[in-house]
């Protein structure tokens, strides 16, 4: 039975240090009881309390790892129903479906797309993570294709109704922790033993959410904890109902039998690949842990990856870049110095435009707590008496003799204050828009 916030508070260190992210131990205990915090956030909790609170403080939805090493994918681990309450933790993992009966050319093309369709966005690499291999009645071919997918760097989902096919595939890639899909009431005991033998996560499938709960209780009693849930409904409305029901019961009622991530198959819910992507977008928001697509096409995958990035970015913490000096285009002591804020989008726009100008430059990134230039200026974080000391202390004066600092045109108002703070520097006002940076640099600093 879940502990109340007061019961948990009695086992807290009562330091009220705030290092957990909230000001008091009582507030932290209440968050633990509500599933909105993890016990590891408290650095002073005793070992005895950890042991007693381990079950009560575990995330309402268990984190399940599929794959190993660089291919490992975490799903689940969620603590809130709505992202604005805190944040969603482990992004929906996208995968493509390969039928073991497909031609070698088709299989190779899908695995090639899996490896190549990767996108750099605000310092992150966006990509699909999973390949689902479906048995077509030939256990040897099933195992062969599964090995190809695993060798391509994918976390693998094995889909079959044959225990022999699973055994053949697990003999090849069992050490890489594929997800076994899927146990039903008819074969749950056999597949549970197989999952335990190879230490692999197991998906369970049923027509109704209540039947999934019964099966998960049976599996946890056998000692199997890495479970993924799936329902048979292939209509959008029905699957959406099931996803929301599972999430609500797990989080709001702390109902442990449904406290596991889910898998959804948009590839079986649409008659064309464009509609399939729309279906997939629905379940990124609510609330699939894994989604399997029939194929990976860049023009459809990229929007899904951006949607996932937006939904799984912490809404309470801006994406930031580290404060420091960034050399672009191999600058030297005669290269100009530009400065911007550490809001990631601002940094990547500015650095990209400088790079495209081909003018060697130094870019200073000032910590503005993730605010853009104009917002940081309004908040007093991108002003002369902040920038001046930063320029003096960051080490840029040891790297350049030009002593010319280019500030964003949107912050032109701070130029006078900066001239007072940096009397040995010439302050130049750059363009207001990032797109105009290349022309500005070529006009003023081309040799």
Could you explain how this protein is built, in words?
The structure is a single chain. By secondary structure, this protein is an alpha/beta fold. The chain folds into 3 domains: 53 residues, Electron transport complex subunit B, putative Fe-S cluster (3-methyladenine DNA Glycosylase II, Chain A, domain 3), CATH 1.10.15; 249 residues, TIM Barrel, CATH 3.20.20.20; 122 residues, 3-Layer(aba) Sandwich (Rossmann fold), CATH 3.40.50. The chain contains 16 helices and 17 strands. It has an 8-stranded parallel sheet with strand order 10-9-8-7-6-3-12-11. Helix 5 links the parallel strand 6 and strand 7. Helix 5 packs parallel to helix 6 and helix 10 packs parallel to helix 11. 40% of the residues are buried. The model has no long low-confidence stretch (mean pLDDT 92).
Summed up:
With 447 residues, the protein is α/β, with parallel strands linked by helices.
What name goes with the CATH superfamily of the largest domain? Dihydropteroate synthase-like
% residues in beta strands: 15-25%
Tally of individual domains: 3
Enter the CATH topology name of the largest domain.
TIM Barrel
Low-confidence stretches: none
Question: How is the largest sheet built, in terms of strand order?
Answer: 10-9-8-7-6-3-12-11
| Biggest beta sheet summary | 8 strands, parallel
How would you name the oligomeric state of the polypeptide chains in this document? single chain
Mean pLDDT: 92
Indicate the overall shape. Answer: globular
CATH architectural arrangement of the largest domain = Alpha-Beta Barrel
What's the CATH class label of the largest domain?
Alpha Beta
């Amino acid at each position: 039975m879940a502990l109340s916030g007061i019961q948990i508070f009695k086992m807290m260190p009562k330091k009220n240090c705030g290092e957990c992210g909230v000001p008091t131990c009582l507030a932290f205990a209440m968050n633990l009881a509500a599933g909105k915090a993890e016990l590891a956030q408290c650095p002073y909790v005793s070992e005895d309390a950890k042991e007693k609170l381990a079950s009560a403080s575990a995330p309402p939805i268990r984190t399940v790892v599929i794959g190993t090493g660089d291919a490992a994918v975490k799903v689940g681990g969620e603590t809130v129903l709505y992202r604005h309450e805190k944040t969603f933790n482990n992004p929906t993992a996208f995968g493509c479906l390969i039928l073991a009966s497909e031609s070698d050319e088709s299989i190779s093309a899908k695995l090639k797309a899996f490896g190549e369709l990767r996108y750099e966005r605000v310092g992150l690499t966006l990509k699909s993570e999973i390949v689902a291999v479906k048995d077509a009645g030939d256990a040897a071919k099933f195992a062969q294709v599964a090995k190809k997918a695993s060798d391509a760097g994918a976390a693998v989902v094995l889909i079959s109704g044959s225990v022999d096919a699973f055994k053949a595939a697990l003999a090849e890639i069992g050490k890489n922790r594929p997800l076994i899909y899927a146990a039903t009431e008819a074969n749950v005991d056999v597949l549970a033993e197989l999952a335990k033998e190879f230490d692999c996560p197991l998906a369970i499938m049923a027509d109704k959410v209540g039947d999934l709960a019964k099966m998960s209780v049976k599996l946890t009693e056998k000692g199997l904890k890495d479970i993924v849930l799936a329902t048979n409904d292939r209509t959008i409305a029905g699957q959406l109902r099931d996803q929301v029901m599972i999430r609500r019961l797990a989080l709001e009622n702390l109902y442990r039998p449904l406290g596991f991530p889910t898998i959804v198959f948009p590839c079986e819910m649409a008659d064309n690949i464009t509609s399939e992507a729309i279906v997939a977008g629905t379940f990124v928001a609510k609330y699939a842990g894994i989604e399997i697509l029939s194929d990976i096409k860049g023009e459809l995958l990229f929007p899904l990856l951006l949607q996932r990035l937006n939904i799984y970015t912490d809404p309470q913490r801006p994406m930031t870049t580290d404060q420091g000096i960034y050399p672009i285009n191999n600058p030297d002591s005669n290269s100009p110095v530009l400065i911007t804020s550490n809001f990631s989008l601002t940094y990547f726009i500015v650095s990209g435009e400088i790079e495209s100008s081909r003018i060697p430059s130094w870019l200073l990134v000032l910590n503005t707590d993730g605010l853009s230039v104009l917002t940081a200026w309004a908040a007093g974080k991108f002003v002369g008496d902040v920038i001046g000391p930063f320029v003096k202390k960051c080490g840029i004066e040891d790297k350049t003799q030009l002593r010319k600092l280019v500030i964003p045109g949107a912050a032109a108002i701070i130029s006078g204050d900066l001239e007072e703070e940096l009397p040995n520097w010439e302050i130049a006002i750059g363009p207001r828009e990032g797109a105009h940076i290349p022309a500005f640099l070529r006009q003023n600093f081309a040799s």
